[in-house]
Amino acid sequence: MPVTDSPSAASQRLPSARQSASMPATLADRLGQRLHISPNTLLIVTAAAIGLGAALANYAFYWLIQGAHRLFFHVIAADVLGAVTPRGQHFQLSEGRAWLIALLPGLGVVLLYFLARVFPGEVYGYGMPRFLERVNLKDARLPARNIVIKMLSAAITVGSGGSVGKEGPVVQIGGTMGSVASGLLGMSTERTRLLVASGAAAAIAAAFDAPIAGVLFAIEIILIGAFELQVFTMLIVAAASSVALTRGLLNVPSVFGEVPVLDFPAGWQLMLYLGLGVLLGLAAWLYNTLFHRIGRLWKALPLNQHLKPFLGASLVGLLGVFVFGVFGDGAEWIARLFAASSDDLPAILDEMWVPGDMGGHYLLMGLGLVALALFKMLATATTLGSGGAGGVFGPALFIGAALGTAFGLAMMSLFPGAVQDFRPFTLVGMCAFLSASTHAPLTSIFLMFEVTNRADSVLPVLFASVLGTALSHKMNRESIDTLELAERRVDMHLGKEERILVITPVAEVMRTRVERVNIKEPLRQLVARVLDSRHTHFPVVDDEGHLRGIVGLSDIRSVLAQPEALDFLIALDVAATDVVFVQTDDNLRTAMSKLNFRGFSEIPVVDADGKLAGMLAQIDVINAYNKKILQAKL
Fold it and tell me: Which is it for strands 537-541 and 547-552: parallel, antiparallel or unpaired?
């Protein structure tokens, strides 16, 4: 009698089964039992804790950037080099020594070099596409060192004048906190992904003092539009706890500073924002295109990986000598535009860069702002394309604010009686350009609402954001964050079910115990093996194990019609050599497409050297898929 049918064997196994059932496998299970809460409740509590952690990280990151800015601009540029002269909270280039300001971004890259030596391959470049790929198409596991790397590298780059934003790094910092928390608790990949999104939502909420915008950012950009009620609840809890701590104890100022009370239009003047939407949609397409094409040029340069960021930073530094407004993330200039009147603009533009005295000529000042936006696009693409560390969120806000201000000045010139303030266009332009470049209109619309606390601000930004995003999407389906992935044929627009097939490698599912056939095996011996086997396909390999063909039952049946051939043919003579196979590092979606293409029930799997690694059956893929679906729900 088989052992599996033995009562004594069954009785021996039952106690251990009870023990395994009573012993939680993970820290999350033990916490749930001790606190008497359900797994979903524990998930929400964890999201709240991550929100608090993201608020503290945003606080530390803010002061790191302030410290780096003070080091590079106040100490090095002003006190040591004499390249700038402080004017209150702002700077003015010094006559005769202004060219020395070009050294600052390069000095920042020198510090990045030492950081890159400690963390090779993890410091340089725009990290958001890799972050999105890891979260959505892989295991969403992020190393804790990311927190330190992103904080230091982005603070150095922004503080030394690099044209990058700090919001992208802070999103990755918050997301890493969610991943680390999930790893400590032993949660599944799907729950890890949700906690990463919670950390990202909390980080954006703390940075902008905008909890709803943080939630929608996580849904539209991090989760690529995926929406479930449980996900929404977690994101709300994380963002709310983050903003509560930031407002109550940390007192970190919003990115924009104080936004004045503005009068937003109604009636026919709303139609003007449709024109702004068209302008911003075209500008966003140009920005995204320039960003990735310049990035490809830098990758193609046959230079040392440490030399490229220094060269790019030096070019941005030289540009900054003539166009001071390209330095940094632009948040300071945005705040000054919000607080300015049309009479203040010439002085502000003179500090940023405008050739000649433009006085009160609205159209000329508008053209100067358009030129400034183009220079900012080039500076951002050069900084990040060459290997500088940071994000694109901040520069996108600055570019949108500059273009919105330019459009507002044009409308003041064309309709002097109806349009008397450019600042509503500045705010709408900022949010709508962000929407058009990231393809995240809801984030931008609610960011506008939370920044202004005015319901009448929603219609203008809705008109401009929706039209601008639609136009940008029409010209290129991919956003600034997903275009690089699309060029590598990584599809980020997958549903949950298809994503499971993409993130599961063939090596995880294939059978490694395979009845393989040597190419020299006599046919009579092969027929005997096939008749005694329960398998239907037999891979044929050479003496080194390389796949050379495959033999199926249909091949054997055709040979049995000629019995005299059994004594002088070998396996290779009857094998099909035009073999459809997959590699161990392929994913299950690739495998299923090959299985379904010719109606195979199973196909061979080879390693990188072409040696047989196993066999993959269609039923194995289905079983693995069902198992992953169950794990995602647990």
Answer: antiparallel
DSSP state at residue 388? -
Q: Does pTM top 0.90 for this prediction?
A: no
> What distance in Å separates the CA atoms of residue 467 and residue 417, rounded to the nearest whole number?
26
Give the 3-state secondary structure of residue 389.
coil
- The better pLDDT of the pair 394, 498 is held by 394
Residue 93 three-state SS: strand
Decide: residue 304, CB within 10 A, 0-12 exposed, 13-18 middle, 19+ buried: exposed
Helix-helix angle 27-35:167-185, to 10 degrees: 80
pLDDT digits (tens, 9 = 90+) for 514-553: 888 888 888 788 788 777 777 778 888 888 888 888 887 7
Within a 13 Å sphere around the CA of 45, how many CA atoms are in the beta-carbon half? 12
Q: Return d(Cα 46, Cα 50) in angstroms, integer.
A: 6
Q: How many other CB atoms are found less than 10 A from the CB of residue 158?
A: 31
- pLDDT tens, position by position, 549-607: 888 777 777 777 677 667 777 878 877 788 888 898 888 888 888 887 766 788 899 89
Distance CA 132, CA 35 (A): 34
Residue 10 clears pLDDT 90, i.e. is over it = no
d(CA 68, CA 62): 10
Q: Say how many CA atoms lie within 13 Å of 123 toward its Cβ.
A: 23
Which pair of tokens denotes residue 96? 């005769």
431/450 Cα distance (integer angstroms): 11
- For 439, what's the count of Cα atoms within 13 Å in the CB-facing half-sphere? 22
Predicted confidence band at 54 (pLDDT cuts at 50, 70, 90)? Answer: very high
C-alpha radius of gyration, the chain, whole number = 30
Contacts of 455 (CB under 8 A, 6+ apart): 449
pLDDT of residue 622: 86
Residue with tokens 């450019």: 422
- What pLDDT, on a 0 to 100 scale, did the predictor assign at position 6? 39
Q: How many CB atoms lie within 10 A of CB 86?
A: 13
Do residues 581 and 598 make contact, with C-beta atoms less than 8 angstroms apart? Answer: no
